[in-house]
Amino acid sequence: MDRKIDPALLRGLSQRRYDRRDVMKLFGVGAGLGAAGLTLAACGVKGAKQAPADQDAVAKYWADKKQNGHLDFATWALYMPKDQAPLKAFTKETGITVNYQEVIQDDPSWYGKIQPQLAADKPIGYDLMVVTNGMELDKLVEFGYLAPLDHSRLPNYTQNADPIYRNEAYDKGNVYSIPYTSGYTGIAYNPAYVKEPITKIAQLWDPKYAGKIGMMKDPQELGNFGMLLLGINPETSTPADWTRAAAKLREQKPLVRAYVAQDYTKSLANGDLWICQGWSGDIFQENASNGSNLQFVVPEEGGTIWTDNMMIPKTAANPVDAVMMMDYFYRPQVAADLTEFINYVTPVPSTKDLIAKHAAASTGDDKKTLEEILTRPLVYPTAADLAKLKRYPSLKSADEQKTYQNTFLPISSG
Amino acid sequence: MGSLRARFTPYALMLPGGLWLAIFFVIPTLILLQFSLMTGNEADGYQFTFHWQNYSDALSTYYPQFIRSLEYGGTATVLGIALSYPVAYWIAFKGGARKSTYLFLILLPFFVSFVLRTISWQFLLSDNGMVLGPLKDAGLLPPDFHILQTSVAVVGGLTYNYLPFMVLPIYVALERVDPGVVEASYDLYSSRTQSFLKVIFPLSLPGVFAGVLMNFVPAASDYVNAEVLGGPDNTMIGNIIQDQALTVRDYPTATALSATLMLALLVGIFAYARALGTETVLQAAAR
Q1: Are residues A66 and A167 in the same domain?
Q2: Domain that includes residue A129, residue range
Q3: Residue A248 resides in a domain
Q4: Kindly report the CA angle at A215 between A290 and B159, in degrees rounded to 5?
Q5: How many independent structural domains does chain A possess?
Q6: pLDDT at site A16
Q7: How far is B237 from chain A (nearest CA, A)?
Q8: What is the least distance, in Å, from the CA of A396 to any CA of chain B?
Q9: How far apart are alpha carbons B172 and B75 in whole angstroms?
Q10: CB-CB: which of B22, B31, B250 is closest to A41?
């Protein structure tokens, strides 16, 4: 057999290989770049904490602001009728064009997206945004990322808003935000599979539904239900309460099919989930748009009420246009039109009469739908419902927020 | 002069790519490593304190997800080879004039967004959906059988999503096999099996290696499949990093986990390269 030299070996013998010196050179380059990187942030990263706004912050902020005739509006899906009629009417009346974008899917990821620009004191590309009360809103306020509202520019708000919204712990006196709409977190279920009435959070722990139970992945929503089951009010809860609630939720874990972040209505409708934590408006919209027959209840132990709030980032390019839009949403007729579509709790009580009038003037299916809205506790909650609803925990310090999240997040990510 | 020029030309050619990597890869990686040794929080800022405990804390809490990610990534890669090799083989040797059409057909579904494709699997595999529904109605499966929110769904999703990155390199390697070499093996009285095992398969190994790299690394760090198709017991390390970075905003923990993941993958690749021989690795890397 001809013993020809293996070509691989030949190549290895004839080609230049990395010798020790080359390797050292490479390390040298690496070390140089490393030093450059380290000096970039050698002293650490500055904290975002700001001193609270002083008395004349409002006057100072608004003094040099002008109306620019344009507005970029960031909000959540299905928060405006498809034809955007209220926005068109606004443009017609004021000449302000509105770039309406449903870009917010959940608070943490939205906050993660805008925080770097806000920290760098740069505009985020939106002048008006909608954020739920909770940890992210707390941070936006604490770090001074929001424009203080000039209430003299909000006459409709002053006149028409339900007074209960003026003293919420997350933004007392509406210094930075006013509500867009509110909803509840309760229990949603599909009566095609669940053959008994659901009234209690405890039923989410029923082994009968093992493998068909859904809970929300959001640590606030998940933790709230653990606490409510134990009779703890989330708003005034302590770290010891969180630990107890987490233990309770861990007991439930073997029964849970999924900790849902999105699309749980679809899973409920097609039977992957039978019973799940849910948001009131989602269930209504799923039933209305896809003909599903899902049920929603505020549990006996209590549910939570959350509010999506409108606010202006401090770095906004068009704050005057934004505050005009905010006030416009508080005209009773505009609020009524929005409520007919959104089906969450409106902050404008006088819409009830307007929708009643609209119903009286309508016929057929329209009339039926409108009358249903009026009697729906999801839009106009009864006093008994309101008594059962609790606010989210109010977590003021960064350490407290971290402790809270590290108590509940690991449950959903085993 | 001429020789000086010849010496510097290669470096000049490397400059744009090198700068790109330095600015968008090397420096961010260093910043990441630096963050992983910091202490602090968003409100008060972060201080660089050589806090190695970030690593031990993160790992002692999240090692199950780590091991699971490597398992899922590995299983998906092996499944990927098993599914891709016959396809690539068939296209390379039996594809004839329509080779490029077949390759296009392989790639076609991947023109649709990654997340959308994964959500489509959720729809297909639903408990009473178009696949499981009829089987359950026919009594072939127990009524509480499900695929979604199991490791099968997650590994299946990973395998599917990275399939073209396995098919293409294997195809390229097989395509390069000289038919003369194969014919020569027949002339030397090798059977079809022997010819495949001793000639074709060894020659295609660089393609398999490249495929493994392009499958295992992204699959082990993926978080979309576990999020969309997985359940509470299928969380991967990518999901944990995402939660720590975006929800908890605990950058030191998130970066410590990322750094560990990168290190684990690098060590894995080098061990694998050693086992297969560095020559093959360099060839694969040169592609």
Answers
A1: yes
A2: 55-181+307-388
A3: yes
A4: 80
A5: 2
A6: 46
A7: 10
A8: 11
A9: 23
A10: B31
pLDDT tens digits along A232-257: 999 899 999 999 999 999 999 999 99
Same domain, A311 and A254: no
* B283: confidence class by pLDDT, cuts 50, 70, 90: low
pLDDT tens sequence across A337-369: 999 888 889 999 999 999 999 999 998 888 888
- Considering the domain architecture, whether residues A78 and A167 belong to the same structural domain is answered as yes
**In terms of domains, do A299 and A275 share one?**
yes
What letter does residue A384 receive in the DSSP assignment? Answer: H
Say whether both A177 and A66 belong to one domain.
yes
The answer to whether residues A84 and A166 belong to one domain is yes
Read off the CATH number of the domain in which A74 is found. 3.40.190.10
Nearest CA to CA, how far is A120 from chain B (Å)? 14
> Which residues have CB under 8 Å from B279's CB, separation 6+?
A8, A12
- The whole-angstrom separation of Cα A236 and Cα A394 is 7
Q: Residue A194: inside a domain, yes or no?
A: yes
Domains and CATH numbers, chain B: 73-286 (1.10.3720.10)
Rg of chain A (C-alpha set):
27
CB spacing of B231 vs A43 below 8 angstroms: no
pLDDT at A1 (0 to 100): 38
Going by pLDDT thresholds of 50, 70 and 90, the confidence category of residue A45 is: confident
Tens-digit pLDDT profile for residues B118-173? 989 988 999 988 999 999 989 899 888 999 999 999 999 999 999 999 999 999 99
Please tell me the distance from the alpha carbon of residue B259 to that of residue A104, in angstroms, as a whole number.
Answer: 30
The overall pTM is greater than 0.90: no
The pLDDT score that the predictor gives to residue A43 is 52
Q: Which residues in chain B are contacts of A256 at CB distance < 8 A?
A: 231-232
